[in-house]
Amino acid sequence: MVNENSCDPICESGCANGFCSAPGECTCNDGYIRENENSCAPVCKDGCKNGECTAPGECTCNDGYIRENENSCAPVCKDGCKNGECTAPGECTCKDGYTKENESSCAPVCKDGCKNGECTAPGKCTCIDGYTKENESSCAPVCKDGCKNGECTAPGECTCNDGYIRENENSCAAVCKNGCENGECTAPGECTCNDGYIRENENSCAAVCKNGCKNGECTAPGECTCKGGYTKENESSCAPVCKDGCKNGECTAPGECTCTDGYTKENENSCAPVCKYGCKNGECTAPGECTCNDGYIRENENNCAPVCMDGCKNGECTAPGECTCKDGYIRVNESSCAPVCMDGCKNGLCTAPGECTCNDGYIRENENNCAPVCKDGCKNGECTAPGECTCKDGYIRVNESSCAPVCEDGCKNGECTAPGECTCNDGYIRENENSCDPVCEDGCKNGECTAPGECTCNDGYIRENETRCAPVCEDGCKNGECTAPGVCTCKVGYTKDKNKGCVPVCKNGCKNGFCSAPEECVCSNGYIKESVSSCLPLCEMECINGLCVAPNKCNCNEGYKNIDNACVAQTTLSDELSTFGSETTVLPDYTNVEDKQSYVCAERCWNGTCMDEQCICKMNYILTEDVLNPAKLLCLPVCETECLRGYCAYPNVCACYDGLFPEDGFECPMSDDSEKAGQTGIMNMKSLFITLIGISLLLMIIICTILYTFRKRAYSVEEKEEQYGAYYSANKVDVIRA
């Protein structure tokens, strides 16, 4: 109870980040969402990757991460990650073609190595000085003068091949280690024999007997000498001598009797026949011929078997008339044996030792037991009799040959593979014991995985690819990025504008122009670039004695009046000027030199500055005498490149006769219209010059009157500049107050 007439609801377990709006009902504050019945959690609208949302819209990074933007944190690799990418705190993952060098650096990999070189990039082997490329993965040393019979093992170093010895720095000679008897050493260990000799071994040559010297020694070319125990058979052969003969054989060496094929040595002078595979129960009477003993019969070429007249079933006749049972059998009578099954033969018949043959409807379970057969199987059950299937615990009969496992609480998006065991279908993963959720292997950013590999976007998002949904900004997001539904985040160098989306920013402004891109100022029509962030108005006929405040608009200085966009000096001597209005005034003739010199500099110098009675032009202007009035001096702008089909309006600035500026800076387009415009421009220029000349003449009359009245008052621009701090330029007036 709050007071006598009012009661507040109670939330017994509290209401963190919210207020108790009804008994046991917690309502979250703005920027929070219900976490459980008694607590609200802050909401970060666009998520908080690798961090924790600690307050509404506030993402606090996990340890080892640093803020990347408002909704995402990036891992930090303290010592950097050269040639790789920092994929987790302190974890540097190398780029393709690189391998880990240390914790913070990856080195390029040359797959097949880089012998005598350095791997400077993936698969790129750069040779060390003194080596040259042998192949993609190896460099060979260079010996400038070669290396005969050797190998260049280092730059300029010749190592002799095996079997050679250094002859000089670039050549090796062959070595025959043990000499070369009767020949010459032509290669390592290679002895080339003299004529009439043949190689005997690596270091010696033997004499040659053309027709050989069997059982003798060729002691000189063509000379055969018999060995001991041999006798001369002919010029090229010696025969061995066996003193006591050689029965069934041949004397192949002195006193050595070698048996004929099919015989074997019986003693030193005699050989006996051989039966290769023996002659069991018989006698070998000739090579491969076996003669059986009495009571035996030929079984094969080398064996004679005993004979049992009444047979010997399941046994072996081991001697004439004697039957011995085989292992696993027992004697039934003199000529027969029966098989034995030591552990019995359940549901079958013992047909061989330890071999139990099952009755019909049964199949072998082990050596001594037969199990009943269910023809179509008994899945998840036990066949208890032929054709009878009994289910295991936790299974239920599906049909006569199959039992299915039971999952009492179901198995959503899966299959019940064992009692109470739910196995998920392909493309699904276990959510709980009885349900499986679909899997999108590459994720489903800003959406929900509704089927295997199928990503359904959240409201306000649209499919970008199979694993990602992008936010939608219905009105577009020019010069920015749509970071959330309806939320346009401007790119660097742009700022949000209520009506135009994201507009470029020129940090220092863009006076008399518009910002067309970040820090890029484009002048409005009738203006020209003064600096990066400012444009000046352009007055085509300049603005002498005034300031160009807008395109072709001139504000005159104090003491001057704007007449047809030209600034003309004013005077208080209206009475004296009025006298010229009623009289015909003749301008002085300045064509002769004397008149020119008597005319003061200030009266002659147009668009320049008088210094010591000399007319001085500003930089990039040139002093020119007016062709219509030789007494007048003009400071005209200079364009280094000729203005084609136009005129020089300002220093190095060309203008076309149609009032526009050439695109390339100096050449105006040539067309019928432009030619007409050019002619019109020339006429306009002529009219303007005539007008200016008229004004000039009027000014001269006024000045002459003032000079006449005030006894020729001198005027010096330089003195006024120093006194008032006013400085004049060719195309504008900048006033600097001291």
Brief summary:
With 738 residues, this protein is mainly beta. It has five helices and 77 strands.
Q: With helices defined by DSSP (H or I, 4 residues minimum), what is the helix count?
A: 5
Major sheet strand order: 69-73-72
Work out the radius of gyration: 60 Å
User: Main sheet, how many strands, which sense, barrel?
Assistant: 3 strands, mixed
Structure classification: mainly beta
Instruction: Please report the distance between the alpha carbons of the first and last residues.
Output: 79 Å
**Number of beta strands:** 77
Spans where pLDDT lies below 50 across 5 or more residues: 571-598, 673-683, 710-738
Task: Write down the overall mean pLDDT.
Answer: 80
User: Level of helix content?
Assistant: under 10%
How much of the sequence lies in strands comes to over 45%
